[in-house]
Amino acid sequence: MPSSLEIFANLFYLVSVVLAARNSVHTWAVGLVGCVLFGWLFFSVQLYADVTLQIFFIATSLLGWWSWRRGRQGEALPISRASATGQGLALLLAVAVAGAYGALLHHFTDAYAPFIDSLVLTFSVLAQLLLMRRKLETWYGWLLVNTLAVPLFASRELYLTAFIYLLFWCNAWYGLYRWRRELKAEMA
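Predicted structure:
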C-alpha cells in the first residue's frame, strides 16, 4: 500500500509532467511541490542520488519558470532543437558523472542500486536542462530516464511511483509528438 507521501508526490509530478508535454508554463510551479515531496520520499527509501536530483529540480524549476516566461529578451522562449555535437558531449558527461557518483555512493553510503540511481540522476539533469531551454530533445532524455526509473522504483517496492513513471514514459512519447508538431508550426 503506498504511503500518503508517495501518493501526493506522484500526483503533483503527474500533473507537472502532463503540463510540460502540453507546453504549459504552469509545469514549473506544480513541479516544485512534487520535488519537495519526492525528496522526502526518496530519502526514506535510501535513494540518495534521487534526493540530490530533487534538490537540483527545485533550483532548475525556478530557473525554468523564469526562462519559459522571459528567456528571450523578455519574450517567451520558443521550442527549438539542440545541436548533435552538444547532445553527444552532454550524454558522455552524464555517463561519466553517473559512474563517479555511483562509485561514491557505493563506497560511502548504504545506497540501494547506486549506479542505476546515479544514471537516473544524471540523465534527469540532462533532460531537465533541455526542458528549461525548451529543446525538443528533452523528450528523448525523459524516455531514457523513465526506462531506467520504472524497474528501479519497483525494486524498492514503490509500485505506485513505478506505475506513474510508466505513465511518464507514455507522456514523454506524447510530449515528443506534440513538441515536434509545435516546432514545425513555428518554422512554417
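Summary: The chain has seven helices and no strands.
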